[in-house]
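// run 5 | inverse folding | seed 20
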């Protein structure tokens, strides 16, 4: 598996330290598109797809793209059970440094059942009393020595599925040690996040269009462009210099670098499974920024990674690496849709 060719003199960050969910799940395809009723019994079938949680997805892709000399330190907890042991094996095989991933006795690993309707929509049923819920600020502070080791040269990543208090502490350490602070939030957290000062400690926020609408308090059903502008209007008051990434499925994605708004249409691919695409998008952006790309260039890498991710049924496409991204981009280019700017092509080429 090959990593990005990164000029050591250009590389901006040497490590990623992040917290968030570490867990797995199953996909269940429902029969019928009408919303599942409170007392309804509905038939369906389990799909041959594996679901992974957000921290695992992003850490996997960033480390795979950046290579073994880039240090990736997830902070989290799993249960002393078969899913937890399997996840630890998979993360170790990918090269992640697991010194801050602890196994808790008598606790269960985070697990969810992803419901999928025939029209492609769906939702998750996720346990709320897993080992991930035991990640607290004290546990986050155990990694302070590594924040100090990479002071001014690291990315602090705060992802959902662990308590907000733990993520707040991680962002605080990121501030103290001059890290790039990146964060993502769920729709259910947006009101609390908006009403707190948490966003003042974020340099890059990555959310989807539904989360963005709640953050900006925009009425449902509005065009994506209206939602994006609503988010920017809010952030100009709260954190004017914040970079923003907003994904909107078939409508493409937007980034804001504090001065310019950029949009990339969704690449035309045959999607097998769209779950995890937003996390793959963020992974590409973080890898691009770590490698020294501008946000606009990193946005292109994010869009490319997200598009290739949905060609796998699983929320981590283990076939994604530098070579596969380059080949995928070349395929798109043959259809007059090449996403590669010169800097991106240099990163992904064998030359």
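// decoded
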């Amino acid at each position: 598996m090959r990593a990005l060719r990164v000029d050591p003199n250009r590389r901006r960050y040497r490590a990623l330290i992040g917290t968030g969910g570490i867990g797995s799940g199953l996909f269940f395809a429902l029969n019928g598109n009408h919303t599942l009723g409170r007392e309804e019994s509905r038939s369906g079938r389990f799909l041959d797809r594996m679901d992974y949680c957000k921290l695992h997805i992003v850490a996997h892709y960033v480390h795979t793209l950046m290579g073994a000399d880039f240090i990736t330190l997830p902070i989290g907890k799993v249960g002393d059970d078969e899913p937890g042991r399997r996840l630890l094996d998979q993360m170790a095989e990918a090269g992640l440094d697991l010194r801050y991933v602890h196994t808790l006795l008598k606790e269960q690993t985070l697990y969810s059942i992803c419901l999928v309707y025939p029209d492609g929509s769906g939702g998750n049923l996720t346990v709320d009393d897993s080992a991930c819920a035991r990640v607290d600020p004290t546990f986050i502070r155990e990694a302070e020595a590594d924040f100090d080791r990479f002071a001014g040269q690291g990315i602090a990543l705060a992802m959902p599925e662990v308590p907000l208090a733990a993520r707040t502490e991680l962002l605080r350490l990121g501030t103290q040690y001059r890290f790039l602070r990146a964060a993502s939030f769920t729709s259910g957290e947006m009101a609390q996040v908006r009403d707190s000062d948490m966003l003042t400690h974020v340099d890059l926020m990555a959310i989807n269009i539904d989360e963005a609408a709640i953050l900006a308090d925009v009425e449902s059903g509005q065009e994506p462009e209206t939602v994006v502008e609503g988010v920017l209007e809010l952030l100009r008051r709260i954190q004017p210099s914040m970079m923003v990434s907003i994904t909107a499925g078939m409508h493409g994605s937007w980034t804001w670098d504090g001065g310019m708004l950029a949009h990339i249409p969704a690449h035309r691919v045959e999607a097998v499974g769209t779950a995890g695409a937003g996390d793959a998008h963020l992974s590409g952006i973080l890898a691009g920024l770590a490698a020294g790309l501008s946000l606009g260039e990193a946005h292109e890498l994010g869009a490319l990674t997200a598009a290739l991710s949905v060609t796998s049924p699983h929320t981590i496409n283990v076939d994604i690496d530098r070579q596969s991204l380059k080949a995928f981009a070349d395929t798109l280019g043959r259809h007059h849709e090449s996403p590669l700017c010169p800097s991106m092509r240099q990163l992904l080429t064998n030359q």
